[in-house]
Amino acid sequence: MTLLAGKHILIVEDEPLIAMTVEDMIVELGGIPVGPASNVAEGLRLATTSPLDAALLDVNINGCRSDDVAHALAARGIPYIFATGYGRTGVEGFPDTPVIAKPYRAEALAEMLAALMSR
Q: Where does residue 63 rank: exposed (0-12), middle (13-18), buried (19+ CB within 10 A)?
């Protein structure tokens, strides 16, 4: 698949196995993974300094919400998706942000990211 061909996708995820799986998904879809960031500080650094086309943010990173990373991305005009196992209840304050439910498949992630970047 090449839905994400050449697109730089930030990954903010604190679970190493999930982060590695998402990296593999993005590569298989033709994208270029950025990160993964396993904490909010690293996520913020990458969100503010890296060339990015989109991002996938776990809502809860080591007990901290990834809201600051989302705000940094929004300030740069970079679209993002929240990933969570808790549904929309975990993303208060971001009513227009797409949410992908964990666990998710590569096809669902690709479709969401492609739609997000085509806006």
A: exposed
Q: For 60, which DSSP code?
A: E
Burial of 30 (0-12, 13-18, 19+ CB in 10 A): middle
Q: For residue 77, what pLDDT is reported?
A: 96
Q: Are 99 and 84 in contact (CB under 8 A)?
A: yes
Cβ–Cβ contacts within 10 Å for residue 77, how many? 6
What is the set of domains in the chain, with CATH numbers?
A: 8-117 (3.40.50.2300)
pLDDT in tens, 63-113: 999 999 999 999 999 999 999 887 766 677 888 899 999 888 988 998 898
Determine how many CB atoms are found less than 10 A away from the CB of residue 95: 7
For 12: left if phi > 0, alpha if psi spans -120 to 50, otherwise beta; the answer is beta
Report the chain's mean pLDDT, rounded to a whole number: 92
Stated pTM of the model = 0.93
What is the distance between the alpha carbons of residues 48 and 101, in angstroms, rounded to a whole number? 26
